[in-house]
Write a sequence for this structure.
């Protein structure tokens, strides 16, 4: 299938380095020509509500990024968790909602016509160690043929002489476990069945290790990336002790493996207030937060002041300032100038850009970002 033709609204930023050179230099606190030009993406509603997307037939993040001529940055992910997932089923529905069973086996109520609202989870398929034993045997087999990597296809897609940064995905140690158990279910399980939860974390880790063993010898990766999403505006949903004693040791195992292949930049996608567990992310080897939310945590400058060059950040442009308008965007952009200049920081919207950001304000933000952090 041929790639959809997108006519860009903006020209690519000028530069004297390749995207790959720039990313590596910026994230290693070395001189770079201008900042990496990237964004995390958009709410699903943006694709139907923003006129610039509707008029240009933009239906997903990749198309949006090509519309704005963002830098290319990619990662390689494998089949490292539940396989197969549960069959999606509609159990019942009303005029406004559906009750479904999702891919993680959760009974959930979801509103019709919106993909950005968090579902109301009602019941998990895993409530006891016996449930987990059954699901593990059925859906977490290490010898599942679907876990075997097609190296030839990946090498064809990502040639050795590429000019863009390529990351290797390290999955999730505890975030996807939360997805299987629900927020409340994980909180109870940590106290009622701690051995079960640790075995779930261990299973996730082993599957990631199996995947890494397949791909690390064959690609020169620039970074590693993972997904946790286990914090909210009051901190982590697991205790700090649990994170330090159960999750962090698995990070250390993965970190040892990727470091053997020269990967020393590792970010994880974790929203919310990461500060209580940030020291243990760092001790485990994860040295970059993404997409670094501001309002549930703090201005990125505060974390850099505390952790220095041990830490990197990606994101951190307060989405509320995008909503507030041009003067607020300009003022906030100014606060990021010294952070970009010091290195180890790539600025972009601190999560998916919401639809209540006006398209004209978003375009102003992109223009101002280029004027401020592009090549002079």
């Amino acid at each position: 299938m041929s790639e959809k033709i997108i006519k860009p609204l903006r020209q690519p930023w000028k530069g004297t380095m390749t995207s790959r050179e720039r990313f590596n230099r910026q994230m290693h606190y070395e001189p770079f020509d201008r900042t990496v030009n990237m964004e995390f993406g958009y709410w699903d509603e943006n694709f139907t509500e923003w006129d610039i997307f509707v008029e240009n037939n933009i239906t997903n993040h990749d198309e949006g990024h090509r519309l704005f001529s963002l830098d290319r940055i990619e990662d390689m992910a494998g089949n490292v968790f539940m396989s197969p997932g549960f069959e999606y089923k509609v159990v019942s529905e009303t005029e406004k909602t559906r009750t479904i069973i999702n891919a993680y086996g959760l009974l959930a109520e979801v509103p019709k016509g919106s993909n950005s609202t968090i579902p109301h989870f009602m019941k998990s398929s895993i409530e006891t160690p016996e449930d987990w034993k059954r699901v593990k045997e059925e859906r977490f087999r290490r010898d599942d043929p679907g876990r075997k990597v097609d190296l030839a296809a990946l090498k064809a897609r990502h040639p050795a002489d590429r000019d863009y940064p390529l990351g290797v995905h390290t999955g999730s140690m505890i975030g996807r476990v939360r997805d299987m158990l629900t927020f409340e279910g994980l909180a109870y399980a940590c106290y009622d069945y701690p051995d079960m939860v640790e075995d779930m974390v261990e299973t996730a880790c082993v599957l990631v290790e199996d995947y890494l063993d397949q791909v690390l010898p064959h690609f020169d990766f620039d970074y590693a990336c993972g997904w946790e999403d286990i914090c909210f505006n009051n901190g982590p949903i697991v205790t700090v002790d649990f994170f330090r004693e159960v999750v962090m040791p698995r990070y250390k195992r993965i970190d040892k493996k990727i470091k053997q292949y020269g990967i020393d930049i590792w970010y994880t996608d974790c929203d919310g207030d990461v500060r209580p567990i940030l020291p243990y992310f760092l001790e485990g080897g994860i040295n970059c937060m993404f997409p670094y939310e501001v309002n549930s945590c703090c201005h990125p400058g505060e974390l850099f002041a505390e952790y220095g060059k041990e830490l990197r950040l990606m994101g951190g442009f307060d989405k509320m300032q995008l909503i507030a308008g041009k003067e607020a965007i300009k003022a906030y952009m100014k606060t990021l100038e010294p952070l970009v200049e010091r290195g180890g920081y790539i600025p972009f919207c601190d999560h998916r850009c919401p639809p209540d950001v006006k398209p004209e304000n978003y375009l102003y933000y992109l223009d101002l970002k280029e004027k401020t952090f592009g090549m002079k």
User: Anything to note?
Assistant: Residues 19-83+125-373 form a domain with the TIM Barrel fold (CATH 3.20.20.210).
